Amino acid sequence: MVSVLAVSDETIESLWNSQVRAMDVDLILGAGDLPFDYLEYLIDALDAPCVFVPGNHDADLSGYSAGRVGWMRAGLPSAWPGPCGAVNADGRIVRIAGLRIAGLGGSIRYNDGPNQWTERQQRRRARNLALTSAWHARRSGVSGVDVLLTHSPPRGVGDQEDPPHRGFECFETLAGRLQARVMIHGHVHPYGRAAEDRTLGATTVINTVGFTLMELAPGADPTIVRRRHGT
Known about the structure:
Number of strands: 17
Mean pLDDT: 92
Oligomer: single chain
Strand order of the largest sheet: 7-3-2-1-16-17
Strand content: 25-35%
Helix content: 10-25%
Radius of gyration: 17 Å
Shape: globular
Low-confidence stretches: none
């Protein structure tokens, strides 16, 4: 079993101080819209790897690559604005702590801010991610992913009707093609209410605004052991 701390959108006082060191966590998942120094603190305090995707209020992290001499962008040395020590899974599939994690960040486009996509743009990105998963399956003989990590929810599954918080229709097809066992997202604030787990086909959909503690067994159904939102 892999002990997972999933966080997004709201900083939690009890996590951003020394008492968090008492938690036994194997992996941190960030679903976006958190201060990067918050993620860095959790990485250091918990001594655990962190996989994240950017939210619509995060900096634009596209175009950066890690080279031999440091971070590069457009062929030139550049300081990466993302959280140090964390793995950006946006548009990628990574294997960390024994889990296969597919990531797709950002929200529906509602203004000119970063990390926003039209439905058509996100559908293209989702298609590329599904093709990457199929390529991994051909090489490894193992299909599907354990976690689909996104910032926004699927359309009609925990999203809202106001323009910034509409989910993506393409996520339903993506979750099916990836055979995702659990989908973890943020973006939609429950404002003190307990966000219900939802289902999307065979995928359990979890809104992790604030934080969620869960245990995941690679290749098996997730077990949520504790849940809290906001404060």
